Amino acid sequence: MRYVRSAAQVPGIPAEAAAVLAEVSRRYVFRANDYYLRLIDWDDPQDPIRQLVIPRSEELESFGALDASNEAANTVVHGVQHKYRDTALVLVNSVCGAYCRYCFRKRLFMDDNDESTHDLGPAFTYIAAHPEITDVLLTGGDPLIMSTPKLRGIVERFAAMPHVRTIRLGSKMPAFNPFRILEDKDLQALFRELSTEDRAIYLMAHFDHPREITSEAREGLICARENHARVVNQCPVIRGINDDPEILAELFSRMTNLGAPQYYL
Known about the structure:
With about 260 residues, the protein is an alpha/beta fold. It has ten helices and ten strands.
């Protein structure tokens, strides 16, 4: 899998356009891989995959606060948000397989941001001390970017807490790079061994458009399910990409048929 971090490295982007987009990338990081970029129809300027990951000059326009959801108000210790009684959200890293241009956490990927944490000690301590928390969401960033041994260590710590019944992995890697699931036997073992009748490991996949559901993506979702992960999908409504009832209906239908029903919209 080859990753690129500059628009100039993307064959479908003309040099003149790449120079303009470089300014966007200097503020809001760009990253993608050859698997995902191959899904783009470069003859269509409105191609949904292109709009999802290729920088756009509009990103430099003023659009409000970087912390659009005021997550700072719900941050209880470094890297942990406790907005809802039963759920704790843990920002385990600040790296994704690719960067969605609409991301409401763009601030996490800027050089001067340190909201995500590499020291999960405070997170373990806080959640262990709050028995009302039954659901832990690992996000960031993308937890499946982490090495499997590191991810397993985190999941095992939370799984050992008697009151934690659900551990969710919020990840777009099933769409960006399904080989992360298909080729990692240790990740498959993590799902198989730690997702039980008493404690569920959820893979919160993130497919925004039916075009992302390739044969490899389908195999990845099936592989996760066959290894006992509970698989669901989540996505926002994105203007020009999936803000069409027919597109959303197709997305929901195809994902449900793969055993990954819509968790929320």
